Please model this.
Amino acid sequence: MNYGDLFRVTLPETVLEIAALLVLVIDLGLLRKAALKTRAAVAVLLGEVGCGVALLTLQFQAQGGLTYPGSRDVVLAAGGSAAVAQTGLLVLTVLSLFLLIDSTFTRHVGEFVAVTLMAAAGGMLIASAQDLLVIFVGLELLSLGLYILTAFAKQSGKSAEGAMKYYLFGGMSAAFLLFGFSYLYGITGSTNLHRVMLGLYSANAAQAAPLEYLALVMIAAGLGFKVAAVPFHLWAPDAYEGAPAPGAAFIASVSKVASFALLISIGTAAWHVFDGMQGRVTISAEFHAQSGPVYLGFRSAWGELLMVMALVSMVVGNLAALAQTNVRRLLAYSAIAHAGYILLGLAFFSYGPRSGQAILYYVLTYGLTTIGAFGAVAVVERASGNADMDAFLGLSRRNPLLAAVLLVLFLSLAGIPPLVGFWAKFNLFAAVLAVYPAGFGLGLVILALAMSAVSLYYYLQVLKRAYVMPAVDTTALKANPVTLMVLVLIAAGVVALGCFPALLQGWMQSFYAGM
Amino acid sequence: MLAWTIYLSFAGALLEAILPKSKPALARGVALAVALAGLLLAVACFAANTWQTRVVLTDVPWVPWMGIRYTLAADGISIVLVLLTGLAAVAGVLFSWNIDLRTNEFFAFYLALIGGVYGVFLSYDLFLLFVFYEIAIVPKYFLIAIWGSTRREYGAMKLALYSFVGSAMVLIGLLGSYALSGGHSTGLVDLGQANLPVHFQMWAFPLVFVGFGILAGMWPFHTWAPTGHVAAPTAASMLLAGVVMKLGAYGCLRVAMGLFPRGMDPWGFSFIGIGSWRDVFAVLAVIGIVYGALVALVQSDFKFVIGYSSVSHMGFVLLGLMTLNQIGVTGAVLQMFSHGVIAGLLFAIVGRIVYERTHTRDLTELEGMYLGKRMPFAAWAFVIAGVASMGLPGFSGFVAELQVLVGSWYAKPWWTAATGVGIVVGVAYTWRALQKAFFSDRLPRPDEHPKTGWPKFDAITWPEATGVGMLLAASLFVGLYPRILLNVIEPAVRTLLAGGVR
Model:
C-alpha cells in the first residue's frame, strides 16, 4: 500500500470533501452579502457538481481496491457491489440536495451542504470498507453528519428533540458496535472481514463460540440501529419528524443505502445459509484464491439474529404505522418495515451475488422513492405548517401534479405493480426463496407479504385525503418549480424503472461482470 | 391486434388525466370512443379467428434475468371474457353519462381499470397476469371512494383490502411455484409443465384459489361484494359485478386449476363426505348460491338485492369450475359471460335509471311511488332483466346454469339438489324486488302523497336506452344462439381439463 493507491481508491470521497470545503469557502467568503436564495442556489449547485465529479471519478478507482501492505487482503473494495452502492449513494445525495433549494429552515445553507457532502463521503467509505476499523470510521463520519443534519432547524423544538434522541441512541449503539468489534478482534486476531471469518471458523473449532455469539449480538445491535430495525428503532420516528426535509430525506435514503451495503459486505464475507434452525455460516477460505475458493462451514447466530430483527421490524413497523397521524412519522415506521423486508434478504443470503443484488436493488429504489416522498411531504408541510395527514386534504385539486407524484410514490412504497417498489419486493423475496424455499424462509416471506397487505391501508389513508376527501382549503398550493420538476422526475423514474425493470438490473450486472 | 385493447385503454386513461377539467362533454366523448374501439377490436378479433387453439399475440423477454416474459395470448376462454369486458366497458360509459364531478378523472380511473382487466384476460405469463391484476385494484378504490354513495369510504377500503389480501395470497403461490420450478420462467405454460411437487400443489391450490376466489365473491369471503356494490357509482358496480368478479373466477380457472391440478386430488381421507379441496370449494360454492339468494330475499335496499344475487350467481361459476367435467366448466365460463351482462344491466337499472330519479333505493319507499306506471321503461327493462337473471330459457343465464347443473349432477348429484333450492329462492327474491319496486298495490300513505300531484321524472336519455338495449340484446342473442360462444369455449376447456396449462 502506498498513498498513491489510497488516493486512487478514495478518489470520489476526496472529491466530495474538496467540494464540501469549496462550498464553505464560497458561501462564507464570497457570498456573505448575497440573498439567502442566491446562496442556497449556489451551495446546492456546487454540491451537485461535486457529486457529479465524484460520479465521474468512480471509474478511475484502482482495480481490485486497496490492499494491506504485503498482503492480498482488501481494505477498501472497488467495483462490484461497492461501485453500485457508491453510484447509488451519489445519485441519492444529488436528489436530496435538491430539496434544499427553497428551504427556509436555516440561513446556514453552506454548512448544510458541506455537512451533507461529508456525511455522503462517510457513506461511500462504508460501502467499500472491508476492515472493521475503516467501517467504524466511516460509520462515525456518516452518523456525526446525520446528527448535525437532524438538528439543523434551530427554531424547531422537534428538530432538537429528534437530534438529541438520535445522538444518544447513536452514541450508545456505536459503543456496542465497537465493543463487538473488539471481541471479534480478540477472538480472531484480525480486523479484515475475511480474516475475521476465517478466524471465527478456527475459534468455533476451539470452542470459543459463546464469546463469538456475544460479539455478534453487539454488532447486530449497532448495525440494527443504523438501519432502524426493531428493537433499535426508537430514534427513527422522532428524527424523521424533526429533521428538516432534505436532512430527513438524506437519513432515509443515503444512510440506509450505506448501512445495507455494509451488511452486504459482511454477508458476502460470510455466506450464511439457513438450514432449518441450523444457522450455518459458510466462508470462502481465500477471498482472492486463484484456484477457486475453498468453502468452510460452521454454525453461527448471525442469520438467526437477522431473522429475528427482520420479523419484529416487519410486524412492529407496519402495525405502528397504522396508528400514525403525522405523515413523516408514518414514513418513519414504513421505513422500519422496509428495513425488515431487507433484513429478511440478509438473513437468507445466497452464495452467488443474487441476494446482494436483490438487496441493493431494493434499497436503491427505496431510497429514490422515499426522497421523492419526503420532498412531496415537505412541499405540503411548507404550505400548511405541519405534516399531519389532514394537511393533505384535497391535494389533488390544490396541486394535481404534486398529488399525482404522491400517488405514484406511495403506491410504489406499498408495492403495487407496475411500479418499481413491487419489482424490488418480488426480486428480494424470490432471492430469499431461491436460498431456502421451505420452512422459515417461506414462512417469513408469507408474513412479509401479509404485512405489505397491511401497509396498503396506511398508504391509502394519505392518498384518500389527497384524492377523495373534500378540501378544507381550496386555494392552489404553489410549489417551487425546480422542486416540483425534481419530484416529477423521481416519480417518472419510479414508473419507468417499474415498467422496464431490466434497465437497473442490467446496469447493476455490468458491474458484477468484471468481478 | 387484440393486444391493442389493453394499450388503447391505458392511452385513453392517460389522455383523460390530462384533459381540461372544464370540458366534461369532451371527457365523455373520449371515454366512449375508447371503450367502443375496444369493443369493436374484440368483436373483430373474435370474428376473424375460429379460436380452436391458443393464439399467441406477443411474446418478448421482459425481465431476462428472472425469465419473465411479456406474453400475451388468447384462447376461447380469454376471447369470450375480452368480449364481455368490451361490452361492459361501453355500457358503463353510457351509464355514467351523468357524472359531472371531476369527469375526466372519473374516466381516467375507469379506463385504467378496463385496461387492467383486458390485460389479465390476455396475459399468459403468471407474473404479467399478476401485474395487471393488481393494476385493476387501485382504480376501483378511487372510483368508489370519490364517486360512490352509501358508506363509500368504508366500502372502497374494504374492497381494496380484500383484493390486496387476495392478491398477496396469489403472490405467495406465484413466488412458491417460481422458486420450486427452478426460477427459470414464470410463463403459464412453463410453470404448467414444471411438474410441481404434489405436496406443494396441495397447499398452493387452496391458497391461490381462495386468493382469486375472494374477488369472485366466494362465500365466506364475499362480504366485500354487497357493501362494495352498494357504495360504488353505477358504472363501477357494473364493472365490479360485470368483469372484476370474473377476474377472480378466471384466475381460479387459469391459475389455480391450470397450474396446480394435483391440488384437487383426494386427500386420502374424508370427513362428512368431503375428501379433497375440490369438495371443499364445491360446498362453499353451493353455500354461496343458497346463502346469497336467501339474504337477497330479505334486503330492503334495492341495490343490496342485486349485490347478494351476484354472490349467488358467482356461486354457479365456482361450482361449475369444481365439477371438473367438460360440460360443467364450459357452463361456468358461459355463466361468467352471462352474469357479467345481466348483473351489469340490473345494476344499471337500479343504480342509474331508478335511483337517479327517485333518490332512494329503499324498497318500502319505492313501493309507494307507482314506478310501474311512472317509469314504464325501467319497469319493462327490469322485468326482462329479472327473468334473464332467474334463468328463463331464451336468455344466456339459462344455458349457462343448466350446463353447470348437469355438470354437477355428473360430479355429485346432491350438489345439484342443493343448488335447486338456490334457484327457487332466486325466483322469489327477483319477484319480490320487482313487485315491491314497480308493481306494488300498496296505496301511498298520506304523508307520501305529494300535495301538488306526482312530479314527472326526467325522460329516459339516449345513453340509458342504448345501454339497456345493448346488454339485453347480448343476453338474448347468446341465450338463443349459445353455440356462437360455446364453439370457442369448449376446445379451450377441453385442453385445460386434459392436463392443466400446456
